[in-house]
Amino acid sequence: MSGPSEQQVLDALRRVRDEERGGDVVGLGMVSGLAVRDGHVAFALEVEPSRAARLESLRQAAERAVDALPGVLSVSAVLTAQRQGPAPPRGAAPRHGTGAAKPLIPGVRTIVAVASGKGGVGKSTTAANLALALRANGLRVGVLDADIYGPSMPRMLGISGRPNSRDGRVLEPMQNHGVKCMSMGFLVPEETPMIWRGPMVMSALNQMLRDVAWGELDILVVDLPPGTGDAQLTMAQQVPLSGAVIVSTPQDIALLDARKGLNMFRKVDVPVLGIIENMSYFTCPHCGERSDIFSHGGARQEAARLNVEFLGELPLDIAIRETSDGGTPIVVAQPESAHARVYRAMANRVWEKVGAASSRPAPRIIVE
Ligand code: ADP
Q1: Do the Cβ atoms of 96 and 32 come closer than 8 Å?
Q2: I want to staple 71 with a disulfide (CB 3.0 to 4.6 A). Which of 3, 115, 169, 331 is the partner?
């Protein structure tokens, strides 16, 4: 057996300083999950999610410090969201199987999932319009189409072709309407039937998250596959989500499903930012008369009862369908329309809830 010992790795890491916090990464208790075997070293640096975007250089410095040790064959350091709870003891004994730590994506400030209890409620339409509305509100936005069974973002955002890779490893995201996008739809032909097994799903998702040159993003919108089964739960666990938005139609049955969605996110400690009611009512394109075909308002009442914010409602409107199915969703196609305004207001609220938290300045200590 060759290669350094855990102690030697920790000693090397003691020379890596987190200047913002004024200490070394070991002394500050940031190192976790250290694994050292035959010259292969892996560990995580636990950081506050709000600082993740700035700490890529710290991660690289930690890798270099370990790489310089004699006998090291490979080093892999990831930034992970700091776990809740008391600070670990100084000296950072290696901890294994913490489970709660999720690797963050450098440069991406916040990640918000759009979910639904079942298919066909307009989850992808909502995700696309929400992303474009966040963009219209001046943010740097990416869309990750995690609906690998039925990717619809290429069509909804009007993007076709294949992503490039400069180095043969990291993919450049595709772009349109000012947002970046990655989707399994770019990588496999639309008509190809795909049989995905659990581990393949996770590895595809991980690659789309981490092996994509997202660059600096304020927010990454993740379009989850419909449903609240194990696959969705695992995804919600794997992605460092800042929060989730649930899309529902007003029908009772869909609402039951929305409730399952809420429980799913609560189980994995992801804050539910709110519920959006889609296909809330119907406006006749001919006479303009409004009909509440699906007992409109169900989601609002349900949200109140479940103590979740109601973010807004969109009617069943052919303009919403035609624009998103045509590759230019209504927020871009008809920015002055009432619907676009609703999406922008919802985007505002979502950003208020996750963005404000991610950029909150550290409290200043004033000694008088
Ligand atoms: P999901 O992602 O939940 O499966 P989609 O977003 O793909 O659902 O929407 C299913 C279909 O319904 C699409 O053709 C979409 O254009 C249409 N659609 C979604 N929301 C609306 C709406 N508010 N009004 C009219 N059509 C809609």
Answers
A1: no
A2: 3
* pLDDT (0 to 100) of residue 331: 97
pTM: 0.72
Mention the CATH class of domain 108-354: alpha beta
Nearest to 314 by CA among 352, 348, 345, 353: 345
Residue ranges, the chain, pLDDT below 50: 84-101, 360-368
What is the predicted pLDDT for the residue at 68? Answer: 94
Q: Residues lining ligand 1, judged by CB closer than 6 Å?
A: 116, 119-125, 152, 226, 278-279, 314, 316-317, 320-321, 324-325
Same fold, 6-81 and 108-354: no
Q: Where are the domains of the chain?
A: 6-81, 108-354
pLDDT value, residue 57: 87
Identify the architecture of domain 6-81 in CATH. Answer: 2-Layer Sandwich (3.30)
pLDDT score at 338: 94
Per-residue confidence (pLDDT) for residue 345, from 0 to 100? 96
Residue 34 in tokens:
């250290």
Looking at residue 200, its pLDDT comes to: 67
Burial letters for 311-347: b for 16+ Cβ neighbours within 10 Å, e otherwise?
bbbbbbbeebeebbeebbbbbbbeeebebbebbbebb
